[in-house]
Structures are given as C-alpha cells and as structure tokens.
Amino acid sequence: MTTAQQAQQQVSEDVHSYAEPTKAVARHLDLDIAVNFDSKTISGTASYNIDNLAKGNEIIFDTRGLQIEKVYLGDNREETTFRLGETDKVLGQPLYVTIKPDTKRVTIQYKTSPDAAALQWLNPQQTAGKKYPFLFTQSQAILARTWIPIQDSPGIRITYNAKVQVPKELMAVMSAENPMQKNATGVYNFEMKQQIPSYLMALSVGDMVFREVGPQTGIYAEPATIEAAAYEFAEMDKMLVAAEKIYGKYRWDRYDLLVLPPSFPFGGMENPRLTFVTPTVLAKDRSLTSLIAHELAHSWSGNLVTNATWNDFWLNEGFTVYFERRIMEELYGKPYADMLAVLGYQDLTNTIEELGADSEDTRLKLDLEGRDPDEGLTDIAYEKGNLFLRHIEMAVGRERFDEFVNKYFNTFAFQSTDTDKFLDFLRKELIKGDEELAEKINIEGWVFSPGLPENHVKPTSERFAQVEETYKAWKNGKPAAQLNTKDWSSHEWLHFIRMLPEQMSQQQMQDLDKAFNFTNSGNSEVLAAWFIHAINNNYRTADKALETFLTNVGRRKFLVPIYKALAATPEGKKKALAIYAKARPNYHAVSTVTLDEMLK
Ligand SMILES: [Zn+2]
Q1: Rounded to an integer, what distance in angstroms lies between the CA atom of residue 27 and that of residue 6?
Q2: Higher pLDDT residue, 82 or 12?
Q3: What local confidence, expressed as pLDDT, does residue 10 receive?
Q4: Of 380, 452, 470, 496, which one has the greatest count of Cβ atoms within 10 A?
C-alpha cells in the first residue's frame, strides 16, 4: 500500500468538512493574528505545514464567512492561486488552494467577519468588571472555520504555535501553554505541542488574572470573579489526582480553568490545558463542581481519544460522563455519585420522550448528514452513552472494565476513532468470542437501535429515597417549613423541585418559596428548575428574577427549557419575545441559533 492508501483506510469520512485529508492534510499550524475590538475582527495569517499525500495540485480547507486575502506557498511565500466554493449555510465554503507535488508549507492571509459564529465580542457592560471588553471563542462543533481557515474535522489533528496581538490593557489565553501574566506589549505567544483536532482551537482575550490552585492547576478569571472562582474550584487539584488514579497519567502538562462572563453558551468547554467554564457554577458551596470533573475527564475521552466524526459524538461524551461520575465517586463516595446518575437518567428519559422513542436521533451512532451537527448533539450521547458503559461495567465487573478502558485510552491516544473502531476493540479486547457476554452487552440494542434496551438497569439513589419521602409528606399537606431538608445538597433540591407537580396552586408555590426561597436561589440549577414551575403556574413573584436570569445568563441548557415553557402560551410567548429582544445581544451564536428557530 502507498502512504495515501494507508491514510485513506485510517480516516473516517466526515460529512461536515470539505477537507480531503487522504489527499493533502495539515499537520502543524503557525497562527499570527491581531484581535481588533473596534471592528470586531481577527486578521492575520494561518501558515500550515502540510503533507501532500497524493502529490496532487490542491489542498482544501474549511472556511465560513472568512475573507481570504492572499495565499502563499513555501517559506519564501510565493503567491499562489485559490478559489472559494459555493456557500453552504452550515458548512460554509471550501477553500481550494493550488499547490505543487512537493509543497510543504501553505500560508493563508485572512480576516474574520464581525458576525463570526465562533466569536463572542462582549462590551464592558457584559463582563463582571464592567471596564474592559472581552472576547471568547467556541469552536465545537464546526465553528473553528469561522475564525481560522482550517481543515475542520475532528478526524484531523494538528499541533500549533500562535502569536496573538491584543490591546495592551488586555491578556490573551489559548488552548495551549499559557502566559499566566499580563505583559506590557499586548503580544502573546503560545505553543501547543500535543496534536489536537480543530474544534479544540480556543482563544480568549480580556482583563484577567491567574491564581494558582495546586502545582499543576490554576484559574484564570476577571479580577472581579477570581476570589469566588478560587473558592469554588479549590478541589480541582484533588480531582486531577483522582482522575489519574482511575485512568492513568494526565498527558497535557497543566490543567487550568478560565471562568468566562455569563454569556458563555455551555457549562464548560474542554479546551485542552484550559477548560472554559460558565460562571453559573459559582454556587458558593462547591455543589456544582461535577462540571469540572466532566471537563477534566475530557482530557482522556475527547481530547486524547477523539470522535472521528460528529456521528460518533457519543464516544466523546458517553465516556466523559461515565468518567466524570467515577471521579465524583472517588472524591465524594458512591451515594453522592448515585445522585448524579439518577439526575442524568432523568435527563435521558426526558430527551427520549421529547425526541420520540423511535427517533433515529436516540441511537448512539448518529447520522447527521445534511444537518448542523450542533442540532443533533443531545443528551443521548452523554447519558445513553454513559448508561451503555455502565451496563458493560456491570457485565464484566469494574476491575476488568477499567483495564479495558485504560487499554483503549492508551491504544488510541492522540488519535481519532469512530464507533466501528471502538466496537472492534470492544469485541477483540473484552468480549473475546464469549457469546454469552456478547449477548449480554447487546451492542446492536444499545448502539444502533433507538430508545433504551428494555432490560437496562435504572440508577437508584439512597439519598434521593429520603427526598422522595419528604416530598410525599409535603404533597399530603405538611407545610414546607416543617419538612426535613437538613444537609440537602443542590442535587437533593433539584430532585425535589423536579418532582413537584406540573399544576400547583398559588398557595403551594408561595408555601415552598417562603420556606426555601427558591426564587432568590444563588444556585443556577435550582433556579432554572424552579422557573419552569413559576412559568407553568403563572407565579408572578418570580417574574423579576426570571427576567434578570434570562438577560444575564447565556447558557443554552438553561435558556432552552425556560423559553420553551414561556412560549407554550400566547401570553407567555409575548413575554418571551420581549425578554429575548433585550437579552439576545448577550447570547452567543450557539444559543441564538437554537432560540431564533424556537421563537420565530
Ligand atoms: Zn462533555
């Protein structure tokens, strides 16, 4: 076989990228860019070391909304020709660059558009400090191409160096080795030595400071947020130790967090070496830190062993949820992790109900051709994926399962893998021809069939059993103030609120709110769950808090169910549209794409 044929065999076809990596593929990126807050643009050059495997005369990159100014070949930068293909709303445009059989280096001079979907430009009012503007990127799933011309497929890995020029009063950080300190020049240099897929390219610029947590861990945040963040995430070093104990050495040197302003659309984004995290987990009691365990777990599942296409997303997220709960169990014990498992199972059954038990989108292996991958990525990948792995663990025992997972991470380290490759590995390394075991594991039922296999084991929680007792007492008429809720964590509260009946009287709502002050909860999970009841029961006392929440927080997981509940009645929809008009500038494109569609 030629090298090209070998490469062809290894690469899974990605319907969300125009790149043809079996012909010509990028291996390393040197990014040299300037960040301009006035024009809301990034401009500069992306220089790639490439392998022209097929020795042809073309290499293809993904772009979306980029202005491509010039393209050069070689170290001496000889100008070459290029053309942009037709625009697809989701995929953008392929950039065809003319190369020679022996071309090793391609340099693209470009500029982003002010509405680049990956970039959110915040004005000072939208930050915690209110003094300086802020920028952050969100590249997953296929938005890296809106700020860098890149072969934007999770099946392709590159190393990178970057030189980033920012306003002198601000600091830049990336998914790379980071500066830890502001410097007077506004020029920051980065190096990412490990190969990563494009969706892990990340940049943030703002007024931020660094605080060390442990020898290998630390936090970047705005000065106004750093104290709260340092308290909340004080245990991140312990998490890293716990994770290494389960699945082996952390391979990315440092593990730091960047706490973003509240418009960040996700809970966290596992950008390597520097997880981006929402400030909505700053609950002041460390009760929502499983999110950090989740992002940390991605350092193995996702960042180290990566889904080759977005149809295999469950390999990233299912493993990560499984690993996240193992870390939480290691740190806080099984009863604690069991609560997380039950809440996750509730999310899963809700998602299946919403999508329909026969929906193709409830299979682990997805088919997202022709769609925005972001739309197809639901709780199925996370929670059904996790449940499948728990199911295998129960079938073979934890010790054997851990040995298998360790071997999986080591075998595919710094590579991309797809569902078929994983299943081959599972058959070869764990099932090993044992037909009884194969039947028990039921790959077909879990991976390729919709819904959940009938004999799946539902997670249970002792601590929630007590919550259920308490709930029953309330339902039978005991006043809320007299309920036994001593030492409840936010997970118990969340379970309690989720159990509340859809229809409640004003008196019941007031009784609960007076006793537990849900409307003014500092816990975003509790608050978001309570707002759903407030909306369904027209509980006006929560109106102001609801509006404040929606105009401040941009986390899609909270926004979607709340707006949906509002939009269920004509009056509520009016309210939703009025709030949305005001709040929309505070949301990232990842959230507005979903909400525009829902509220149109
Ligand atoms: Zn994740």
Answers
A1: 16
A2: 82
A3: 55
A4: 380
